[in-house]
Each structure stands twice: as structure tokens, then as C-alpha cells.
Amino acid sequence: MAVPKVAFVVAQHGFRDEELLQTREVLSRRGVQSLVASETRQAAVGKFGATVTVDLTLPEITVGNFDGIIFVGGPGAETFFAKRTALKRAQQFALAGKVVAAICTAPAILANAGLLMGKRA
Predict the structure, then answer these.
(1) Considering only CA atoms, which of 73, 87, 75 is closest in space to residue 115?
(2) Which of 3, 6, 24, 57 is the 20 to 30 A CA-CA neighbour of 31?
(3) Closest listed residue to residue 85, CA positions, set 98, 71, 99
């Protein structure tokens, strides 16, 4: 059985540190591999100063290579609220029946992608 893999999408500046780091740790303990994606491959800096390596850019996320996508919140998440690439990726994962998740303020991305119609969020 293949190791499950998810892509965390974080803002280049201002993602919520604990939303990424704690969630990533919990998933790692359960055998889920994760990569971090952002707008560029430059290190991303959280609201409280955590610096994380960015493994790939948002356009490089392909549905076939991941079991899910997780949008991390924080003040920087607003960058993705209307970003076509982010909305499209969320829609593609949903259409493929894969996990699409968002934390804190990031569900606005899912709402803008039309994925929350008829759902409680």
C-alpha cells in the first residue's frame, strides 16, 4: 500500500505557524507524507516567525500525485481567496474525490471555489 501524501498550501508570508506545523506533525505520526506549496519556492514565513521550506509551487501540485490538499489559514491566506490557481486546485481535488481541507480563514478559498454549497462550514 502506498504512503498517503498531502500538499499543504501556505501563504508566502503570514500563514498560521501552528496550523501548518501541528497538523503536519499529527499527520506525520499517522504515516502521511506531506509537502509544502506556496506561490514561489522561496522559504515561507509564518505569522509568528516559523520559516518552512517550500517544496513546490501551487501550479506544480498535481491531483495524481497527492491524496489530498490542505489550505492553511492565517492573515496571508487571503492571498488565495480569489487566486484562480488555488480555486482550480481545490476544485480538481474535489472532482477527483480526494481530501480537500482548509483551516481557520482558509475555508473562504473553498467557498470561493464553490465547494461549500449545501455544506456546513
Answers:
(1) 87
(2) 57
(3) 71
HSE of 81 in the Cβ direction (CA atoms, 13 Å)?
Answer: 10
Cβ atoms of 90 and 113 closer than 8 Å: yes
Instruction: For residue 41, report the phi and psi dihedrals to the nearest 5 degrees.
Output: -90, 5
Residue the block writes with cell 499543504: 8
Could you tell me what percentage of the chain is helix, strand and coil, using 3-state DSSP and rounding each to the nearest 5?
A: 35, 25, 40
Q: Print pLDDT tens along the chain (121 aa).
A: 689 999 999 999 999 999 999 999 999 999 999 999 999 999 999 999 999 999 999 999 999 999 999 999 999 999 999 999 999 999 999 999 999 999 999 999 999 999 999 888 7
Distance (Å, whole) CA 94 – CA 52? 27
Residue 100: strand, helix, or coil: strand
